[in-house]
Design goal:
The structure holds two protein chains of two kinds.
Chain A: H1 2-19, H2 24-42, E1 46-53, H3 58-74, E2 78-85, H4 93-99, E3 107-111, H5 114-121, H6 130-136, H7 138-141, H8 144-150, E4 159-160, E5 162-171, H9 172-177, H10 186-198, E6 202-205, H11 211-226, H12 228-236, H13 244-258, H14 271-279, E7 283-288, H15 292-298, E8 305-308, E9 322-325, E10 327-330, H16 338-348, H17 351-358, E11 366-367, H18 380-388, E12 394-395, H19 397-400, H20 403-417, H21 423-439
Parallel strand pairs in A: 1-2, 1-3, 6-7, 9-12
Antiparallel strand pairs in A: 3-10, 4-10, 5-7, 5-8, 5-9, 5-11
Helix pairs in contact in A: 3-17, 11-12, 11-13, 11-20, 13-21, 20-21
Chain B: H1 10-58, E1 61-62, E2 71-72, H2 76-82, H3 85-118, H4 123-131, H5 138-149, H6 155-162, H7 179-204, H8 208-216, H9 221-232, H10 234-250, H11 253-258, H12 270-279, H13 284-312
Antiparallel strand pairs in B: 1-2
The chains are: A alpha/beta, B mainly alpha.
Chain lengths: ~450, ~325
């Protein structure tokens, strides 16, 4: 009988220990193991923990390694633990990690956007960085546009890492084969689409199953058809989604599907499928951010791929690539070492960082630092993108709108593509989402 | 000073001792039972009952999933759900899924099981072969069938075009009228192996003499199937129907992987909707209310079905 008690007791204890927080054991183990080195930490061997987005490919991974090695070279007394993982606030993983008892990284690179950062800052999961901005003069070290976008509120909770430039990536081989050149006007753009379609080429591919990807193309259409001022008023002012200029933008998207410039099947394609279509020459163009550059490099397609800005459809106006802040650094409230985070963030804004990243032809992002402005990128496509945003950039609404409007935005654009909703209905539905966001107090501001 | 002589009845002492000893044995017995049950019970309480109770609690608050405080809002989330056209559409899609699953899952699976059970040779081969999809992860199945349904180079449309039936080629996951049936077919493929095993087990328990008697009476195969096989599989059928209904109502993985509820909410089910509400729209309490509603429907249907079955017996 005693044996039975002992046995069942052991089972219960074993199961309970298995049930304890997965982070519990490793942390404890780590602290036990690092006890001796904790002393060493006091003498200079500190560890900087960083969390960055999952790598798209090996090229990106190698670039991060280069960046970290440069940092280590400049700061030999700091060890760097760089981990790639899920950093989209929407997925809930990041919020859960920051709320849990786990010690968070010293700095996290997240997908930017007021909606995302606000979710974390409203509940004090990340620190305000105002003091660091003042102490390190970060305002001067950022491109003015980047600073303006994050400094609208009393507290600044983020340090912009990159700027997005969403533009039209195209396959040069297809263009050459069919005698098509990059368009500078609406008419040229439309006749190019028609020419490609007549040649039996799918002109534009979209991975509409992923909301953000259909958001990319629609942001370009809004910039071209409605104009930047209208979009700016929509995001920061009292503009409405169902205003005639945005309904017209929605009608343009619908028309491109009807004309066969965008296949109706795109509604079921993922972004990965769409990228594959472009890179494998199944489609001539895709509207995407500069992130595509690392895929182009990874597949050694540098000679076949290039990018241009969709021309303005408004007489006498010019359009720019759309975007906003792409990736941004935040410092968790529970981060152990703010000093290390500060050292790292200063490095990110430094010329050293810009030189090592922009000096690599496979680098795919536009640094938000002002130091990067004077450096000529080694990659031709990135150089083109940076040149195109010299006079500012348009807005990618996905980054700026509230959660209700965003969900409606993704679903209704999908509906437009699939012919399941009219342009007016789609814009009314998105506006209804925006009204809910506004009622919940969602309003973005910029300096 | 007075003294009281107490007279103790030996039989009552024995009775008291016997009862005490019985009580002790019963406590011991209970402790043993509990010690064996506790591992499963603790896990069940921790990972099932507690989250369920907490979801019910959260559904009465207004909480975004991150804020340190939350406001009590009573039944407001439920009232809002009742007026939310997307939630109602998701609920409808769930019931549509249940009906299609019952039709596509039960009869074909039963037919396959009967055919396999009748095989003289290769029974093991077919049993293992048909069961194979059930061992694949749902994520793998989702990706695999997304490719099969792919409108341009997916296997189904390529096949249809090659045999001259190109007009039937569809954007299987993009057309509003066929997206749910397409998902249900995938789900059926993924799970029919499990139900087939249950049916095969049920078929093995049917007394062969009933078939012999039917043969002597001159009954044909259909008659035997309808009058012997189906009634004998009543209990198995009940289990399978319950499982199919529950599975169809709580389905999330395949929809999330293959359509994420799109296009334009056409394949949205309650599970995907509450996931989006909780994690994309930061409405954790609202999502909890949606989950509670779905939970009540699943539990209610299961109880009702079992009640109906017991009554029938």
């Amino acid at each position: 009988m005693k044996g039975q008690y002992v046995m069942s007791g052991i089972i219960v204890i074993a199961l309970l220990s298995g049930c304890s927080s997965p982070s519990g054991s490793p942390n404890t183990a780590a602290s036990n193991e690092t006890d001796p080195s904790a002393g060493a930490g006091n003498t200079g061997a500190q560890t900087l923990d960083l969390l960055v987005p999952n790598y798209y490919n090996d090229t990106e991974k190698k670039l991060w390694e280069k960046v970290v090695n440069k940092f280590k070279e400049l700061h030999p007394d700091i060890k760097v633990e760089l981990v790639a993982g899920e950093v989209k606030v929407e997925s809930g993983k990041l919020t859960t990690m920051l709320q849990s008892g786990v010690t968070p990284p010293d700095a996290i690179l997240i997908n930017a956007g007021p909606g995302r950062v606000k979710t974390l800052s409203d509940v004090n999961l990340i620190k305000p960085l105002n003091e660091l901005y003042t102490k390190n003069k970060w305002e001067e070290q950022l491109r003015p546009t980047a600073y303006e976008l994050v400094a609208g509120e009393e507290n600044i909770f983020e340090l912009p890492h990159t700027l997005d430039a969403i533009m039209v990536f195209y396959n040069k081989d297809i263009f050459d084969k069919h005698g098509v050149t990059t368009p500078a006007t609406k008419d040229e753009f439309m006749s190019m689409l028609e020419k490609l379609k007549e040649a039996g080429v799918s002109p534009i591919t979209v991975g509409a199953r992923n909301g953000y990807a259909i958001g990319w193309i629609f942001s370009n259409i809004m910039e071209s058809v409605a104009g930047r001022e209208a979009v700016e008023n929509l995001i920061y002012g009292d503009g409405k989604w169902n205003a005639p200029e945005f309904v017209k933008a929605a009608e343009t998207l619908e028309d491109w599907v009807k004309q066969g410039y965008i296949p109706k099947e795109a509604v079921t394609l993922t972004q990965a499928d769409s990228k594959f279509s472009l890179l494998s020459k199944r489609a001539a163009m895709e509207i995407e951010g500069t992130y595509l550059i690392s895929d182009i490099a990874d597949q050694k397609l540098e000679d076949s791929m290039a990018a241009f800005t969709m021309p303005s459809f408004i007489e006498g106006k010019t359009a720019s690539p759309t975007g906003g802040i792409g990736l941004t650094w935040v410092v968790p409230s529970k981060a152990e070492d703010e000093d290390l985070a500060e050292t790292w963030l200063n490095f990110v804004l430094s010329k050293d960082f810009s030189e090592i990243t922009l000096g690599d032809p496979t680098y795919n992002l536009i640094p938000a630092s002002s130091s990067s402005a004077s450096i000529q990128p080694a990659g031709a496509v990135l150089a083109q993108a940076i040149k195109d945003i010299e006079n500012g950039f348009g807005y990618n609404p996905t980054v700026f709108i509230g959660p209700e409007a965003k969900e409606a935005y993704y679903q209704n654009l999908q509906g437009l593509l699939g012919g399941l909703v009219t342009p007016k209905q789609a814009m009314d539905n998105i506006e209804a989402g925006a009204v809910k966001d506004r009622a919940a107090g969602y309003q973005v501001k910029k300096k | 000073m007075s003294t009281t002589n107490m007279v103790v009845n030996p039989s009552s002492v024995n009775e008291a001792n016997r009862l005490a000893s019985k009580g002790k044995r019963s406590i011991k017995r209970m402790l043993i039972i509990l010690s064996f049950l506790s591992p499963a019970l603790i896990l069940y309480i921790l990972f099932m009952l507690y989250p369920m109770a907490d979801a019910v609690r959260l559904s009465f608050f207004d909480w975004d999933g991150a804020a340190p405080t939350m406001n009590f809002v009573g039944a407001a989330n439920y009232t809002q759900l009742a007026q939310d056209p997307i939630f109602l559409k998701s609920l409808f899609n769930n019931f549509y899924w249940v009906v299609l699953s019952l039709v596509l899952m039960i009869l074909p699976t039963l037919a396959i099981s009967v055919m396999i059970a009748k095989l003289k040779r290769g029974k093991m081969f077919f049993r293992a072969g048909f069961y194979l999809p059930s061992v694949l992860s749902l994520a793998v199945i989702g990706v695999l069938w997304s490719k099969i349904y792919e409108p341009s180079y997916g296997a189904i449309n390529v096949f249809l075009r090659q045999v001259g039936l190109g007009a039937l080629a569809q954007n299987w996951l993009g057309e509003p009228s066929i997206v749910i049936p397409a998902l249900v077919i995938t789900s059926t493929w993924a799970f029919y192996g499990t139900y087939m095993v249950l049916f095969l087990a049920g078929l093995q328990s049917i007394d062969n003499s009933m078939y012999e008697a039917a043969d002597i009476d001159g009954a044909g195969p259909l008659r035997k199937f309808w009058n012997i096989t189906v009634p004998s599989l009543r209990n198995t059928m009940n289990v399978v129907v319950s499982m199919v209904v529950i599975h169809a109502l709580k389905g999330f993985g395949l929809v999330w992987i293959m359509t994420q509820g799109g296009p334009f909410y056409k394949s949205e089910v309650v599970a995907t909707y509450v996931y989006k509400a909780a994690f994309s729209m930061n409405k954790v309490s609202y999502a909890s209310a949606g989950s509670v509603v779905l939970g009540i429907i699943v539990i209610g249907l299961t109880i009702a079905f079992n009640y109906w079955r017991d009554k029938g017996e």
